[in-house]
From TrEMBL:
<dbReference type="InterPro" id="IPR000277">
    <property type="entry name" value="Cys/Met-Metab_PyrdxlP-dep_enz"/>
</dbReference>
<dbReference type="GO" id="GO:0019343">
    <property type="term" value="P:cysteine biosynthetic process via cystathionine"/>
</dbReference>
<protein>
    <submittedName>
        <fullName>Cystathionine gamma-lyase</fullName>
    </submittedName>
</protein>
<dbReference type="GO" id="GO:0005737">
    <property type="term" value="C:cytoplasm"/>
</dbReference>
<feature type="modified residue" description="N6-(pyridoxal phosphate)lysine">
    <location>
        <position position="202"/>
    </location>
</feature>
<dbReference type="InterPro" id="IPR015422">
    <property type="entry name" value="PyrdxlP-dep_Trfase_small"/>
</dbReference>
<dbReference type="GO" id="GO:0004123">
    <property type="term" value="F:cystathionine gamma-lyase activity"/>
</dbReference>
<keyword id="KW-0456">Lyase</keyword>
<dbReference type="GO" id="GO:0019346">
    <property type="term" value="P:transsulfuration"/>
</dbReference>
<dbReference type="GO" id="GO:0009086">
    <property type="term" value="P:methionine biosynthetic process"/>
</dbReference>
<dbReference type="InterPro" id="IPR015424">
    <property type="entry name" value="PyrdxlP-dep_Trfase"/>
</dbReference>
<dbReference type="Pfam" id="PF01053">
    <property type="entry name" value="Cys_Met_Meta_PP"/>
</dbReference>
<dbReference type="GO" id="GO:0030170">
    <property type="term" value="F:pyridoxal phosphate binding"/>
</dbReference>
<comment type="similarity">
    <text>Belongs to the trans-sulfuration enzymes family.</text>
</comment>
<keyword id="KW-0663">Pyridoxal phosphate</keyword>
<dbReference type="InterPro" id="IPR015421">
    <property type="entry name" value="PyrdxlP-dep_Trfase_major"/>
</dbReference>
Amino acid sequence: MQDNEVSSFTTRTVHGGDQRSVADNAIFPAIVTSSSFAKRGLDDVPDYAYGRVGNPTRHAYESCLAELEGGSGAIACASGMAATNAVLELLPKDSHILVMAGVYGGTFRLIEDYRGRTAGLEASYVDLNDIAALREQLRDNTRLIWIESPTNPLLELVDLERVARFARDHGLLTCIDNTFCSPWNQRPIEFGIDLVMHSASKYIGGHSDLIGGIVVAADTERLGELRSVAMATGSIQGPFDCYLALRGLKTLSLRMERQAANAETLARFLAEHPRVEAVFYPGLESHPQHELCRRQMRSGGAVVSMKLKAPREAFDTFLGKLKLFVLADSLGGVESMINHSYSMSHGSLNHEQKAAQGISENLFRLSVGIEDIEDLIAELDRALRAL
Ligand SMILES: *Cc1c(COP(=O)(O)O)cnc(C)c1O
């Protein structure tokens, strides 16, 4: 939407961006599959020329998501990892970056196994809330701070405003992986962050039927650089998947409202349960960063982690009682999911690395869906009592 008359986030999830110019009067933008677009003459410069460079369906999706994040524009990529890679392509070779400790495993792998070897990238993993540590790690070639908040699976938060201020003072770029929040829950550009990256495979798509990624730039200069990267490296999102992501956005607010409300109710239930040792949820007053959560997020979100009072041998019994909570790697869909961090999301780390990150064997992450909360509570209660 080009005017400022509509301020409501939810209204913008339905009408946001530039969706009407795509196909004559269609309520929903068409899936335009054409790889090439005809010129009317040698001097004609059409909006679209070639599908890698620009595509109307992709544009509709990018412009909507950019508006929801309050940015100047976005580039939609083939996956969350492709989006992260596009951001790292902005850096000159032999750069150094500061990365939130406990960052998403795929991001760690990309930096350590590939960007280091191919681009000389070096990373220091630090708790970004420790500004003294940040200052200590600064080098002449430090270029970027890579933020993730909340972290997976222990849901620690980073104070976005503070980190953005530190970055500005030292001439560093900031990028946040905002996947766990979606723009419904957290809009980092409002706190001074330069770039916002999402795995659209999670809340943006919202239906576990899509792999995608997207980067939103706060200012037009960065947006131009990102567009060049997307065009040059070619890891763009195809029109069918852009259609799915845009369709997902239409119900983002409804899904997130329901999922976050379910998650909070569930977190309170689990916190009182005799078989639960600890609950991690920033929306609970007992979370050490609850005040920060209230400042920079709309709610505690839809992910809840918990440690069970039970040995490894009992987990199969527990999981065997779950029908609604699907044992799966992903999160963010309308269906509830459960993940065993120790053997699944963090399975490639050794025991010491996991221990250093607080990943114990009795830790489970719940991605709470839109089901009836009474059913979710009843099922978890049954499974916990079987322990
Ligand atoms: C899933 C995920 C990614 C990677 O996204 P893909 O779409 O799987 O490539 C990055 N960051 C976070 C926090 C994720 O959950």
